[in-house]
Amino acid sequence: MLGLSVLSGPVAWAQSGGDRLSLPEHLRPTVDGVATLIYDASPGRPVRLTVVPGPAGPAPTTLTLETTAEDLRPLVEEIRELSLLRPPASLGQIVRLGDELGEVLLAPAADQLRNVSRLGLSANGPLSDLAFGVVRAPRSLDPQGRYLFETRTLCWVDPALGAVDTSDPPVSDRPVALALADAVYRPPARPLGASMSDGGISWRRHAARRNQASTISALGLPVVSRFGQGASPALFWESAESYAVRFLHVAVEARIGPGSPDGPALLLSPDRYDEQAIPVATDELASRLALERGSLVVLSGLDTGNHGTGPGPFVVAFGAAGASTVVTSLWPVVDESATHLFDTFYSSVADGLHPAVALRQAQLGHLAQPLRFDQGDGREPVDFDASHPYYWAGYRMYRGSADDCG
After folding, report:
1. Who is most buried in 122, 264, 271, 370, counting CB within 10 A?
2. Residue 110 and residue 247 in one domain
């Protein structure tokens, strides 16, 4: 097992982060209780962490951490591999790695974060692919040593999403929610029923992703559904151009990098790329997708791999199309648990909760108690333990600025 060597507590060298006004505006919180953590993990030098507190806090501080991008890359890859394994045996290893990463990435800034309840995150290099949900809060910040997301509301900051222009009138007074699910459903290599740790849940080939995408109905808007054969690229573009979309849920596979020959793409049928792929080109999305003001986009099947870019290309593309909030995954999650998570998420958003808070509450629900699944066909419901990080740690919320994070 790979690991960082932390022998006598975190080591960092601090220097002034400069005047707040020298930092990009979207990274400067203007309300108390918020701080931005900016990680520069450029290759060939120690990682630099800039802590930008709210207006009542001290001046920004830049910390030089005792680790490099080259040290962190194998750890990020290992956490991903352990998360995708899913058996309980991997949980202890994930926790140990999360503790080590918390000491290296967070403990040097513990004093600045003690009175902060909301964190905006910005990172490059291997840290853009890190599931920050598995990073553990150091004991100097949280005596219980819980996952960071249990103690703070997390939100990734990307200026591509920008601030909502309230002077811009809505596209339509009759907005819709658009739900897209796979045209071809492929069961996983290891069905859920193959392991007692997976609760013995059987797969329903025809319904899993459709059920997940249908959770968008909790928002109370008319839902335009494109499922099965109705999920073709042509029908997606027809819907995108015909309706004023306020919420978009995409429950299909999406990839970044070598797996997508023409760049980032939504893959409606991974085995038929040429016929069923929707390339995510910024210009095309911006010109053809009619997103409402303040719209929210969810990409629940995104697989970012370990390319050092995170979900960035998709965030930029949907931001250019008008999205103010983007929720993405770092790896695809089985749809039975994703259905529960997004049902809770959309219900909370419909009740008026901030999207970052709604996502955190949905993730906490996976830790708090087993999920109950109705198997249908006259079979008894089963309880399913979804506390393993595989089921919740890969989801991220992106907003346009630190202030937008809550």
Report:
1. 264
2. no
